[in-house]
UniProtKB/TrEMBL annotation:
Any coiled-coil regions, as ranges: none
InterPro entries in alphabetical order: NA-bd_OB-fold, Primosome_PriB/ssb, ssDNA-bd
Pfam families referenced in this protein's UniProt entry, alphabetically: SSB (PF00436)
Gene name of this polypeptide: ssb
Native organism: Cutibacterium acnes
Cited CDD domains: SSB_OBF (cd04496)
Subunit structure: Homotetramer.
Top-rank lineage group of the source organism: Bacteria
A GO BP entry: DNA replication
Location of region: Disordered: 117-184
Alphabetical keyword list: DNA-binding
Annotated protein name in UniProt: Single-stranded DNA-binding protein
HAMAP family: SSB (MF_00984)
UniProt KW Repressor keyword: no
UniProt GO cellular component terms: nucleoid
Amino acid sequence: MAGETPITVIGNLTADPELRFTPNGVPVANFTVASTPRTFDRQTNEWRDGEAMFLNCSVWRQFAENVAESLSKGMRVIVSGNLKARSYEDRNGNRRTSYEIDVIEIGPSLKFAAAKVSRNQSSGGGNWGGNSAGGQGGWSGGNGGQGGNWGGNPGNQGSYNNGDANRGGGVDPWASAQTDEPPF
């Protein structure tokens, strides 16, 4: 979407993701990722740590429940999402701005670890983590069950949708494609 700032961050979780529910019962998980840049000092032939950056992150719906169940404090993760700025006034009346990532994808870094991924049970076939009941259940498929099916997800009320992909009027144009011959 226009006007959004995509960002990918690699870092460690500072605490277990905090799973809460809105008054309407919608799950939301919040967590913080600490990312420390490293630079190589040619004079000493050593790597040096820079100043750590702490970024607050949030995920919604089934995606939030998957994150809270799968990730924990200290895990090295790769987070991809949209950077959001929030302005507020502090106790002293000063204007402040904080930055938060509206997470689209998150997973453990496999650079120094191994992971076994298990797929959630899904009632819908052929859609990416979404079903006609609002994307509950199914594989997170890149956006945590927030309407990632290519033909549209009428029940999607998430903050992320696949842009033009969800404007298809609810019909999956690839559903009838034959597997034996290409369409051209």
